[in-house]
Specification:
67 residues, binds zinc ion
Amino acid sequence: MDLAQFNKLRARSFNEQKSLLKKIAKGQTVLCSKCDQVIQLNVAVKEGEKAYAKCQKGCTYIELDMA
Ligand SMILES: [Zn+2]
């Protein structure tokens, strides 16, 4: 895969993740595109760990940058 295409794909998935997180933050139910399980936000993490949103099966896993 050439680099330009790779960067384009990466930017697109980054934007998808951002809009997904916005929906979750608003309290909307978001389903994983792979397993159709609800994606849940987990902010109860230890110090030094990142908050994350993930589905029950773990095929969707998004780390949140809240530094
Ligand atoms: Zn999933």
